[in-house]
Amino acid sequence: MVVDYRKLQRGGHSPLYINGDVVERASSVRFLGVHLTDDLTWSLHTNKVVRSARQNLFFLRRLRKFGLPPDILTNFYRCTIASILMACITVWYGSCTAYDRKALKRVVRTAESIIGSKLPDLQDIYQSRCLRKIQKIQLGCSHPAQDLFTLLQEVPQHPGQKKTANEQFLPTSHQVPE
Asked: Does pTM surpass 0.70?
C-alpha cells in the first residue's frame, strides 16, 4: 500500500523493489483487526464492522425468542456485538464520516429494540476511552507523549458554566458539536 500525501497525484507511482522483487500494491490491508485503505478513509473498516455486528444480531434475536431476560441479552450484546463495534474505537471512530456513524448507530438501536433497554452510545464510549487514554499518558512519567497534553485552565464560557472534560482534553477536531 502506498500512501501519498500530495494533493495532486500526477501519474502513477514508480514500483517499489525489495531484494530485486517488485512489491505488490494493495488498496487495503488488515492490520490488528483494523482495515486500512490507501485513501486513509475508514469506510471499508466501518462497513466490515457493521456487517459482522449485524450477523450477530441474528443470534440476539434468537435468544430473545427463547425468552431470555434482558440482563442476559445485554450481556450477550456486550460480549459479541459491542466487542466488535468497539474494537480499536479510539483509532478510527473520530475520523468516521457521518454516514458511517449513522450505520453504526443503527446497529446499536436495533440491538436496543431487541433487548428492550437502553445501551451506551458509541460516541460516549469513544470519548470516555480517549479521555482515559489521555489521563494514563499524563500520569505515566516515562511516556514520550506526556508533555503533549496539559489541562486547560477552567475558563467559564458563560457566567457559572465550566468547560467539560471533552473540551479540556480532546483536540477540536475530535470534539463533538453540541
From this structure: no
d(CA 164, CA 148): 19
Beta bridge partners of 30: 35
Cβ-count burial of 157 within 10 angstroms (0-12 exposed, 13-18 middle, 19+ buried)?
exposed
Report pLDDT digits (tens) over 66-116.
999 999 999 999 999 989 888 888 888 888 889 999 999 999 999 999 998
Residues 6 or more apart from 70 whose CB is under 8 A from it?
115, 116, 117
What distance in Å separates the CA atoms of residue 173 and residue 49, rounded to the nearest whole number? 23
Report the C-alpha gap between 124 and 111 in whole angstroms: 17
Comparing CA positions, the residue from 173, 175, 140 lying closest to residue 165 is 175
Cα(7)–Cα(46) distance, integer angstroms? 25
C-alpha cell at 4: 501519498
Res. 12 pLDDT band, cuts 50 70 90:
low
Residue 37 has pLDDT above 90, yes or no: no
| CA-wise closest residue to 65 among 74, 55, 53, 73 | 73
